[in-house]
């Protein structure tokens, strides 16, 4: 402990990291919530003028839900009618026909969508969405889907994404937001290959979320502790050295992610506070790593 | 070469006391176990071994077999005898193994062993009385949950104690609590209610951080392969981790082995933070 310095008292990392992926009717959008970090290198909502599917793939905790949530608000701000089905259980909704059928069960559906759904007669996805789009009177829809059934294999996922894409394009160039969590890179490759083989490939915008880089984790640290000066005040370590030591996990099946890194930092500060340290040091991070284990 | 190569495998059961490869050196690697009670105090009882997982209960049990075996008891190690899930099936297996000490089993023995719990307890006493000498028997060991009514752990221990009392033998019963120390406290109270039989409790304490560090240093100092050393900071960090994280010896040995492997793979003369951090993350969850 350096002479005269007061022991650490406050943990800059709250018990739970902010949940920026969940939407509710009063939600102003993830970018306007406390805890949102504007990473320079992360993908933004893409332009989907012709409608279709925005397919977001990535390993767990790399920001799929946050990006999908951002897309929802981005397209809503551009005039789309917003429908969020992401709160339903994974696999709860199959293809686009079932999606329209299930939408009728949603209590908080906008009136115009509910009225348009009543006009849908066809049991075929493209025709059904055509009727739906016509009933919407030209309004475009953005629908965030629940996660797919985790037992579905990549070719089935690809086929389903294409089904949604054709349907969405027919419904006034609407947009379906489709998240695909995966563990194996190969699975993601197979999904994209399946889509690339289709004539409707252009209706699907694939976004891959990569593991967080050292630079992004550093941006995260700066944002959470309040800038580089605060970092110097709180850390008795070179953050670059810490991040380099974590680099091996970036290439693993379960790479570094912000949720894990947040918990690691919180535990390290807890260890430092418990031991009356004035700053958090590498040994606090090591003890924290033993406590929480791998991402 | 890695000074920690070769592993820190669990000790094999004492298959044959006269040819058993283990000796006092293997049993006394750490000082956390209590001194074995004098034989005259434990004859005719159950020695109930407890302690948090990974800190040497089985090693201590093995040591007891050797200690009391050297004093004239006949060691009989059933530690590795399954089945490990069904309690009654395991009790029957113990019965058969003990019966087999008196000679080959026949069909009648096999049929006799197919008893319920009450029948098992009676047969156990009878088999032990006919065992023809004072035995020191280490019983099969499983992870046990005191809340599992099927397991009837305290009842089982007391039955062994009754059988031991009549035959002047000793049973070593290693108790692996699913939840340490909560489950253990519950069991201990149940056992202490019975004053008619002798159950002697031996708790193996956790290996201390200082002992863990002494062990690590000892392995490195005695190794002929000293090309790779610990960075000064790494030494301090390891001591801190040992002090904070309740690691057990096998976990520490595995950690050291892997960080040296990482340094060797990078042809680094020193173990650094980059070698240590991934392995520390890997052992996460092993800490108590």
Question: What are its keywords?
Answer:
A: 295 residues; alpha/beta; Rossmann fold; 5 strands; B: 288 residues; 2 domains; 9 strands
Q: Can you tell me about this structure?
A:
The complex is a heterodimer of chains A (295) and B (288). Chain A is α/β, with parallel strands linked by helices. Helix content of chain A is 42%, strand content 9%. Chain A contains 11 helices and 5 strands. Chain A has helices at residues 64-77, 96-103, 111-117, 125-135, 154-170, 185-196, 214-225, 228-234, 239-245, 258-274, 282-292; strands at 52-58, 81-84, 141-144, 175-181, 204-209. In chain A, helix 5 crosses helix 6 and helix 10 (258-274) packs across helix 11 (282-292). The longest helix of chain A is centred in the middle third of the chain and has 17 residues, at 154-170. Chain B is an alpha/beta fold and 288 residues long. Chain B is 47% helix and 11% strand. Chain B has 12 helices and 9 strands. Chain B has helices spanning 24-27, 39-42, 57-69, 87-99, 107-113, 117-129, 153-167, 182-192, 209-222, 232-245, 249-265, 273-283, and strands at residues 45-50, 74-77, 135-138, 143-144, 170-174, 176-177, 199-203, 229-230, 270-271. The chains are: A alpha/beta (295), B alpha/beta (288). The A-B interface holds A 241, 244-249, 271, 282-283, 285-287, 289-294 and B 233, 236-237, 240-241, 244-245, 247, 273-274, 276-278, 280-287.
């Amino acid at each position: 402990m350096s002479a005269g310095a007061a022991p650490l008292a406050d943990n800059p990392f709250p018990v739970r990291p902010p949940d920026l992926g969940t939407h509710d009717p009063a939600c102003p959008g993830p970018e306007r919530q406390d805890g949102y970090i504007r990473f320079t290198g992360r993908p933004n909502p893409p332009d989907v003028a012709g409608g279709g599917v925005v397919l977001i793939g990535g390993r767990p905790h790399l920001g799929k839900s946050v990006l999908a949530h951002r897309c929802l608000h981005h397209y809503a701000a551009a005039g789309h009618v917003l429908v969020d089905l992401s709160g339903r259980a994974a696999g709860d909704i199959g293809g686009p026909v079932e999606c329209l059928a299930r939408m009728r069960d949603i209590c908080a559906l906008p009136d115009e969508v509910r009225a348009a759904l009543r006009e849908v007669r066809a049991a075929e996805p493209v025709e059904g969405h055509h009727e739906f789009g016509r009933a919407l009177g030209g309004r475009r829809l953005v629908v965030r889907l629940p996660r797919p059934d985790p037992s579905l294999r990549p070719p089935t996922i690809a086929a389903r994404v294409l089904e949604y894409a054709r349907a969405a394009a027919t419904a006034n160039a609407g947009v379906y937001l489709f998240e695909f969590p995966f563990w194996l890179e190969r699975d993601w490759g197979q999904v994209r290959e399946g889509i690339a083989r289709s004539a409707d490939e252009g209706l699907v915008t694939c976004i891959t979320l990569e593991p967080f880089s050292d630079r992004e984790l550093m941006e995260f640290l700066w944002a959470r502790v309040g800038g580089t000066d605060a970092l110097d005040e709180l850390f008795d370590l070179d953050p670059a050295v810490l991040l380099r030591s974590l680099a091996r996990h970036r290439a693993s099946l379960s790479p570094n992610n912000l949720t894990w890194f947040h918990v690691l930092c919180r535990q390290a500060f807890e260890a430092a506070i418990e031991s009356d340290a004035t700053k958090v040091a590498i040994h606090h991070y090591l003890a924290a790593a033993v406590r929480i284990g791998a991402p | 070469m890695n000074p920690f190569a070769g592993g820190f495998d669990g000790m094999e059961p004492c298959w044959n006391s006269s040819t058993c490869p283990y000796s006092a050196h293997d049993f006394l690697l750490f000082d956390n176990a209590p001194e074995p009670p004098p034989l005259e105090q434990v004859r005719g009882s159950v020695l109930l071994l407890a302690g948090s997982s990974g800190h040497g209960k089985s090693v201590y049990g093995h040591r007891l077999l050797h200690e009391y075996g050297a004093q004239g008891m006949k060691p009989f190690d059933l530690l590795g005898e399954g089945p490990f899930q069904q309690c009654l099936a395991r009790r029957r297996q113990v019965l058969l193994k003990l019966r087999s000490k008196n000679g080959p089993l026949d069909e009648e023995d096999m049929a006799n062993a197919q008893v319920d719990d009450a029948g098992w307890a009676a047969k156990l006493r009878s088999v032990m009385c006919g065992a023809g000498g004072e035995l020191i028997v280490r019983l099969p060991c499983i992870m046990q949950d005191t809340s599992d009514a099927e397991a009837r752990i305290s009842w089982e221990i007391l039955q062994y104690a009754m059988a031991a009392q009549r035959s002047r033998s000793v049973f070593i019963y290693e108790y692996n609590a699913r939840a340490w120390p909560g489950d253990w406290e519950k069991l201990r109270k149940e056992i202490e209610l019975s004053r008619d039989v002798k159950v002697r409790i031996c708790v193996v304490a956790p290996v201390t951080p200082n002992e863990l560090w002494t062990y690590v240093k000892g392995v490195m100092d005695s190794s002929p392969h000293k090309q790779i050393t610990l960075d000064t900071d790494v030494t301090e960090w390891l001591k801190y981790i040992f002090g904070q994280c309740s690691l057990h010896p096998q976990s520490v040995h595995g950690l050291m082995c892997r960080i040296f492997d990482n340094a060797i793979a990078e042809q680094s003369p020193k173990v650094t933070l980059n070698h240590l951090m991934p392995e520390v993350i890997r052992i996460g969850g092993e800490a108590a």
